[in-house]
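Researcher: Structure prediction, please.
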Amino acid sequence: MYLPRLRDLREDNDLKQTDIAEFLGIRQTVYSRYERGFQNIPLEHLIRLAQKYGVSTDYILGLTKNPKPNR
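Model: Predicted structure follows.
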């Protein structure tokens, strides 16, 4: 599944793929595959990224245009 918001969020926060890969405890090449849609992102990584960026998982997945999580 291609998730263009992963790249947008990373770039909006002036981060490199290596920064996010280190945060998730994975190799940069694996994270790159998430961004390009060549590998599905595990749920645990999706949740950690949503928490890091302060957005909902639905926003990352493209299911809503509202970035703020419902609380």
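Model: Residues 20 and 31 are 8 Å apart (CA to CA).
Researcher: Thanks, that helps.
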